[in-house]
Amino acid sequence: MNNKKFDAIVVGAGPAGSSAARRLCQLNRTVLLIDQAKFPREKACGGGLTGNVEKFLDFDISSVIETKVTSTLCVFRGKILKRLEPKGLNVSMIRRPKFDHLLAMKAKEAGAVFAENARLNKIMKSNGRYLVETTAGNFESSSVIGADGALSPTARVVGLRNKMKLGIAMEAEVLPRKEMLEKWQKLAIFDFGVVPKGYGWVFPKQNSFSIGVGTVENKFPDARKHLDDLIRRHECVRNPNGISIRSAPLPYWEKMQPLAENGVFLVGDAGGLVDPLSGEGISYAIRSGKTASEFINEFLNGVLNSDHGYTEEIERTIARNFEFAGKLASIFFRYPVAAYILGVRSKIVNDIFARLISGKIDYSILYEEIRSSLPGRAYRLLKPILSI
Ligand SMILES: Cc1cc2nc3c(=O)[nH]c(=O)nc-3n(C[C@H](O)[C@H](O)[C@H](O)COP(=O)(O)OP(=O)(O)OC[C@H]3O[C@@H](n4cnc5c(N)ncnc54)[C@H](O)[C@@H]3O)c2cc1C
């Protein structure tokens, strides 16, 4: 690599980092995008994309979509509820190696220099510039984007997001018996009421299923047991031809913390931008990556308070929605039976949920529907949790 000086160095080439790098290049900035992995790389993930993702991407991703689901099935404590086929459901399934590789190539196509096998070691500041030390060499920039995932080394090095709330998810990629794919490929299954403060899922892919369990708790000692139980409960993944298991932390959003300081900006999981109810993070990674780029552009133009502006913008566009999701999560995870009666079993709530995951509405609508359907006594009991 000849040029070692850039306007911005983006650490991490997941959806957040690649989206940020692409947008900065479109704004005529010079960008180095580094990742410790060699791409395509694996990443523990269900690979479910809500309709929000396509809103924030400026290119076609149909080449990496494995399947589009047309129906959802909710299961509560082993009891199978009605299969729903909501009109206009817009949920796609991807596999992360291919999806993330495409996004990184789109950043490269826009002009970013992409360095793989480049692990961040240190960030130092000297004369207002950042010196970034990696296993692939040392580089210099005026700004840094921390897009390096849930444990974000960038956040730690610069002292941002000291209080990280981490949940845990365990996921298996299952190679099923052939007939199971044909039967179950258009269906997303959500399994509630068993995993403590969390849920299980079964998401179809072209040749496999992603099945997993996630919790907002920071310890999940029985994860493997819950995963095995889930596999036993669902016909499509029972007696598979192959299985590979991985787990990873999930940085659920809890409260707003500063996400930028002096030209260092945190995006995606590094910024803790994971939906506290569903665990969705990909669309927020892409959105925050693009938003950060706009603010970094301002920062590089000399607008000095742009880092504060970024945190406020994330609060307005993402975290406000997470507040509603967090309130619902505190009821659903604390009172699973109430969640079943008010949410999982209700046709209206299910329809709203389908619109939510299709990216047509945000959590405030679902929240209002559930709140207004509460009987008087239950509302009085839950009022302290529900108030926003
Ligand atoms: C089991 C599981 C299931 C999930 N299912 C879904 C789902 O179905 N739908 C959904 O929307 N979200 C899901 N999520 C959340 C989603 O995976 C994340 O929110 C998303 O990956 C965030 O993207 P990101 O770009 O911020 O970080 P990541 O995708 O984690 O990318 C971070 C990158 O940084 C790199 N990196 C880390 N440290 C360094 C370093 N020191 N130097 C250089 N590079 C570094 C990593 O190699 C990685 O490529 C799931 C998460 C888990 C754990």
Q: What is the annotated CATH architecture of the largest domain?
A: 3-Layer(bba) Sandwich
- How does the overall form come out from the CA principal axes? globular
Computed structural class: alpha/beta
What does the largest sheet look like?
8 strands, mixed
Radius of gyration: 21 Å
Helical fraction equals 25-40%
How much beta, percentage-wise?
Answer: 25-35%
The H/E string reads EHEEHEEEEHEEEEHEHEEEHEEEHHHHHH
Uncertain parts: none
Describe the structure.
- With 388 residues, this protein is of the alpha/beta class.
- The protein folds into three domains: 5-45 and 96-164 and 253-321, FAD/NAD(P)-binding domain; 66-92 and 166-250, Guanine Nucleotide Dissociation Inhibitor, domain 2, CATH 3.30.519; 323-386, no CATH class.
- It has helices spanning 15-26, 52-56, 96-109, 153-158, 178-184, 223-233, 282-300, 306-334, 336-344, 347-357, 363-373, 376-386, and strands spanning 5-11, 31-34, 48-49, 65-69, 71-76, 79-84, 91-94, 113-115, 120-126, 129-134, 137-146, 167-175, 187-192, 198-204, 209-215, 242-250, 260-261, 264-266.
- Strands 1, 2, 8, 9, 10, 11, 17 and 18 form an eight-stranded mixed sheet that branches. A seven-stranded mixed sheet has the order 6-5-13-14-15-12-16, with helices on both faces.
- A hairpin with a 2-residue loop joins β5 and β6.
- α7 (282-300) packs antiparallel against α8.
- It is globular, with a radius of gyration of 21 Å.
- The model has no long low-confidence stretch (mean pLDDT 91).
- Flavin-adenine dinucleotide binds at residues 11-17, 34-37, 43-48, 119-120, 147-149, 153, 169, 171, 212, 248, 250, 268-270, 274, 279-282, 285.
- Flavin-adenine dinucleotide binds next to α1, β12, β16 and α7.
